[in-house]
Amino acid sequence: MAITEICIGLPQPFNGAELSAIDKRPVTGAVTIRSFGIEGDMVADTAHHGGVDMAVHHYPHDHYAAWDQWLGGHDLLVRPAAFGENLMSTGLTEPQVHIGDRFRFGSALLEVSQPRKPCWKIEHRFDRKGMVARIIKQHDCGWYYRVIEEGEAQAGDALECVETGHTEWSVARLFAKFYDPAHRASREEIKEIVDLERLSPVMRDKIRAKLAS
After folding, report:
1. pTM here?
2. For strand 87-89 and strand 56-60, is the pairing parallel, antiparallel, or unpaired?
3. Within a domain: residue 118?
4. φ and ψ at 137, to 5 degrees?
């Protein structure tokens, strides 16, 4: 499977005085993927985005058709990175991807670290309420990678799974247990999540606090 687009963006005015780098655009040629992310890409809200466990964001293009139907069409969906993603592809979705899966992309090695939690910025960008609720219900959240080995890649390069992570915990399942009230995690599932070594420490701490309470 190939990555069809690599997209980057810089912080710019988004909502009044607030900045966001959600408006990403595709790049041509090779990019360098470092531990903090793709060179030339930045985040504005460093309290909630970025860092080594959210270095690269992948959102499947497979979801665009359903979004187009639900939204009744939207200009953002006719170009890449409508959801602020760094990587776009077709044929790989949240139920197929596990926490801790490792992918070779160009010369870089990426590891799935956590699902993406949707926030109000998606609805503001599309000027449409209800999108966050739909993501929570559908579990079409996308995911983040940490960078195990830095390297270079370009659009058209294969994304090859070279190691499977926590096989019982797909991105879709973990997202559902964290955020979807219809799939609330049992105490046993919470214990399992706490022990997922390749899950980002922030998410493990959150679920550990829930277990303690």
Report:
1. 0.95
2. parallel
3. yes
4. -75, -40
